[in-house]
Each structure stands twice: as C-alpha cells, then as structure tokens.
Design brief:
mainly alpha, Rhomboid-like fold, three-stranded antiparallel β-sheet, 11 helices
C-alpha cells in the first residue's frame, strides 16, 4: 500500500521537511558522482556496519549518521523522500523545527541500534533514511490518530481509498515485524521497527500541545488532529 496524501491540510512551516528531502537528494547525486564501481566502497566506509560498530563503537559511531543520508538506488531514495513528504509536514508543524529534527536524528540512531542488536555479526552496510522516517511514522500515529491516508493499492492502478491512519500505520509496522521475523533479506527490517518505536516514545516524552485553528476553512485540521 502506497500513501499519496493525508487529511491534515494545515502544517505551518516545513523547513526541516524540505531541508531533509533536499539534503538527502543532494547526497545521493554526490554519491553517484563517484561512479557505480565506487559505491560498494562508499557503502562499506560510510554505511552502518553492525560488526564494525561493535568492534569499535566510539570510532564507528559517526557512521550511524552518515548512513542516514546514503541510499542504495533511486527507488530507495524516492520511497523514503515520498514518505517524508506525506507524513513529515504534519509532524513538523506540531513539534516545530528543533524537536522534529531531534525526533528524526534519534530515530535514525535507534534504528541502527535495533538492527545492530538483532544482527550484531552482520558485515553488510546499512544505508538509507528509512529508520529515521519510521520514527516520523511512529510520531504521526500518536499525534494524528484521527487522520486518514489516501492509499494506492498495488497492483490495482486505479484502486485508491482513504484509510484511517492507525489502520495504515498498524499494517505497515505489522509487515515490518513479519519480514523481520522471517529473515527476509535485503532490507533492514529491525531498523524500521526500532525507528518506529523511538518515534512513539519521543512523542510520549515530549507530549506536544494540541494546536487548533479557529478559521472554518481549516475544519479538517480540527477534525483530524
């Protein structure tokens, strides 16, 4: 199921959202400038490698952050940036720039730690913003439980409908658990779960105040957040 948009129509400033999309995109094209032959070396040096991290946690800790801004393919980048575009504006609007960035970065750290905990001997580099994005999804679930997500169902090209956010995000995290427990290769499933869990925890800790808008034009904002 692919999300197209949500029902939150008023976001406020989304400086961090646009900045993250821009930074990740620029990092991806900079990464491509080295040529396809250099990518395995780049991933090994700048990606998060659990086995290397546990051998030298202090020396390798910086790779937790560098790995968050690298992507394995254009499809990988596009998927993560689209999820940011759909879910991050509402979360940033509620938290503000600084708390949103704290949520994003700490979710990325939690994602790496979760992946490392469940696969400590892995020498496969983990790259991508998926863990941090998962934290945004966890935050969204608690902040906007009454929102709905316009969802595109594959492979039915014209099959789209609105799903309540708890159903969409509940299905999403369930799929992560199913694939993680089945050992499905190629994706850092435990990282997604770790990032999502941290997003939930951060919202419970920060307890952002609800903000409502009196203008009737923003009735959707009052109804769904």
């Amino acid at each position: 199921m692919f999300p197209l948009r949500d029902t939150i129509t008023y976001h406020g400033a989304i400086v961090a959202t646009i900045g993250l999309i821009t930074l990740n995109t620029l990092a991806f094209f900079y990464q491509l400038s080295f040529g396809p032959q250099a990518l395995p070396v780049l991933f090994q040096n700048f990606g998060f490698v659990p086995s290397s991290f546990f051998e030298d946690p202090i020396g390798e800790s910086w790779t937790i952050f560098s790995s968050m801004f690298m992507h394995g393919s254009f499809g990988h980048l596009l998927s993560n940036m689209w999820f940011i575009w759909v879910f991050a504006p509402a979360v940033e609007g509620r938290l503000g720039f600084r708390r949103f960035m704290l949520l994003y970065l700490l979710s990325g750290v939690a994602a790496a730690m979760a992946q490392g905990f469940f696969m400590p001997a892995s020498d496969i580099p983990m790259v991508g913003a998926s863990g941090a994005v998962s934290g945004i999804l966890g935050a969204y679930l608690l902040l906007f439980p009454r929102a709905r997500i316009l969802t595109f169902i594959l492979p039915f090209i014209f099959f789209m409908f609105w799903l309540p956010a708890p159903i969409y995000l509940g299905y999403w995290i369930l799929i992560q658990f199913v694939y993680a427990l089945s050992g499905q290769p190629g994706v850092a499933w435990w990282a997604h779960i770790g990032g999502f869990a941290l997003g939930l925890i951060m919202i419970l800790i920060m307890r952002p105040r609800r903000v409502y808008r009196a203008d009737p034009f923003w009735e959707c904002w009052r109804d769904y957040c």
